[in-house]
Amino acid sequence: MAQRPAMRDSDAAMHVLQKAAVSLPHPGPRPGPRAPAGGGWRLSHLWWAPHRLAFATAALLLVLSALWWLGVQLARAGAIAPWPQAFDPGLLHGTLMTYGFMPLFFAGFLFTAGPKWLDMPAPSAQDVAPAVLLQGLGWLLWLGAAVGGTPLALAGAAAAALGLAWSAALFGRLLWRSPAPERQHATLAWLAACVGVLALLGLGLAVAAGRHEIARACLLTGLWGFVASTFVVVAHRMIPFFTASALPMVSVWRPHWVLALMLFALGMKTLSVWTAWAGLTSGTWALAHGFWMLVSGLLLLWLAVVWGLMQSLRIKLLAMLHLGFVWLGLGLLIDGLSHLWAALTGTDALYLGALHASTMGFLGSLMLAMVTRVSCGHSGRPLVADGLIWSLFCLLQLATLLRLAAAVGGNGSVILTVAAATAWALTVVPWSWHLMRWWGRPRRDGRPG
Questions:
Q1: Are the CB atoms for 395 and 426 separated by under 8 Å?
Q2: 209: buried, middle or exposed (CB in 10 Å: 19+, 13-18, 0-12)?
Q3: Of 423, 361, 362, 431, nearest to 390 (Cα)?
Q4: What is the C-alpha separation between 381 and 383, in angstroms, rounded?
Q5: To the nearest 10°, the Cα dihedral for 152, 217, 189, 439?
Q6: What pTM value is reported for the model?
Q7: How far is CA 386 from CA 211, 369, 376, in A?
Q8: Is 394 left (phi over 0), alpha (psi -120 to 50) or beta?
Q9: Rounded to the nearest 10 degrees, how much is the dihedral formed by the CA atoms of 353, 405, 323, 340?
Q10: Which of 184, 273, 356, 418 has its CA 20 to 30 A from that of 408?
Q11: What is the predicted pLDDT for the residue at 427?
């Protein structure tokens, strides 16, 4: 890897301070009495810190959505008896994968790391509970629309949108009051959340009007403009920092133009959603879009190497972050090839492959890596991916490859889709159970939080 220029004195000093800050005990809002290490699992322990409550709610929704979608795929393949679907299963699935659990994982992370970024007191679990529980209830109702139909879907979307708006308002208040001189990443994360709220409201209104094609456009707007953008912002801030903390020979290098490039690429993907819906997609636009996605994908793969991809492979938890980021570059490459192929042939055979490379590969891998890292650090455990976590991460990579193979089409696509859904469920169910045991127990070191 090419050597980066040495950091300025001020950058080096900031780097040392950031390293020191990581080792400080979590302040733990409203922690209650100091708990003995190794205590038993209790539901009340989820109220000890925002990440406990938010992560546990997200994991419950993740497991239920994965098992439901596996059932849908098995029924489609004829492996089990089909059951009536009272609501569009594709829209249910896409919305759950975008909004059902990801924003709750965001809340757990941002209300833990965000106050440190902003030099503000951390909120308590009680502060974030209304936002978390409204989203949890809303997405349970949304999932119930599979048998209850549109009324349950509308009720669920309304409750979830209110919860997401509540969460954005809480984070916005931290941002507004923050004295920190550097608030760029927090501001971008908050703006992405605002996009997510607006897109979710649009989705609900479209469902109420029976315009599912507009609902899908709003869903994809939330995917690229909210979820993927939030991951990109957090990755730009945290991956170089985590890498430099674990591998001192790799410097913290995260220029603003890199972040602008990534967000611009996601902005183009969001714009293409609406140009496609409006029927404005021409051969020229497809060529331009495809070319830019190819360029962006190649640049992101180069960035992954600069950030220490090869060096990270020695540390499993760090490798999970880097390999997940590689999937974003691959997803953009496949998306570029998809648009170029569509411009030349009029068919878009690679669209679902590009979508799942970015969602299952990039978003799914970073979800496992980020949540595992926060859970390790805030349960008093070493920042290490144990054998089970690493095996599940590898299984997720297999699930992504199977879904990409299914997207190509052919006679085996149904079987490959079932295999991908099975591998996804076999990944997220044990992973959620493994970490749930941590969230409901006191920290091993006896510290609050």
A1: yes
A2: exposed
A3: 431
A4: 6
A5: 40
A6: 0.89
A7: 46, 12, 10
A8: alpha
A9: -40
A10: 273
A11: 98
Tokens found for residue 6:
């040495």
- Per-residue model confidence as pLDDT tens digits over 298-309: 999 999 998 889
Question: DSSP string spanning 277-311?
Answer: HTT---HHHHHHHHHHHHHHHHHHHHHHHHTTHHH
Tell me which of 58-62, 220-224, 388-392, 405-409 is least confident: 405-409
Residue 315 has pLDDT above 80, yes or no: yes
φ, ψ (nearest 5 deg) of residue 35: -95, 145
Give the span between the Cα atoms of 19 and 352, in whole angstroms. 41
CA dihedral over 223, 224, 226, 228, signed as positive or negative: positive
Cβ neighbours around 189 below 10 Å, total: 25
134-156: per-residue pLDDT in tens?
A: 999 999 999 999 999 999 999 99
Q: How far apart are CA 341 and CA 85, in angstroms?
A: 34
* Alpha carbon separation from 122 to 129, 232, 253 (Å, rounded): 14, 23, 28
CA 157 → CA 69, 99, 144, 153, distances in Å?
19, 10, 12, 6
